[in-house]
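Minutes, project check-in
Item: structure for the 117-residue chain
Input as provided by the requester:
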Amino acid sequence: MTRPINEDEKQTANRLLENARAAMRAIEHYDQPAVDRLCRAIAYVGEISFMQSLGLVIRQKGVLARLAFAPPIETAGRGRREIAAAAQDAISTLLGFSAPAPGTAPTSPRDLRAVPQ
């Protein structure tokens, strides 16, 4: 058995539908190269301080973040450097980069390759 939809429910449904349409329009205009440039603009690499990096993020008009989660890293019986190297390898793998040579790191945003689509 169904019942008629009241006016409040119609308005709520219309708002939800319009929000969904707006989200679809945003997806249609998604520009991966522009996102990659933005990500490089706020990369925390080289000899900049955390505060300098934070300033780069704050000055951006918008930031699109893509979250990815790696499997947990086993820490029992491992030193901090070994754990840090395992974390660096996991992050490199998630981003589609080859693992950096031991003891090296990117020194500028130009050293980063585009995030795979």
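Outcome recorded: Residues 5 and 114 are 49 Å apart (CA to CA).
No further action items on this chain.
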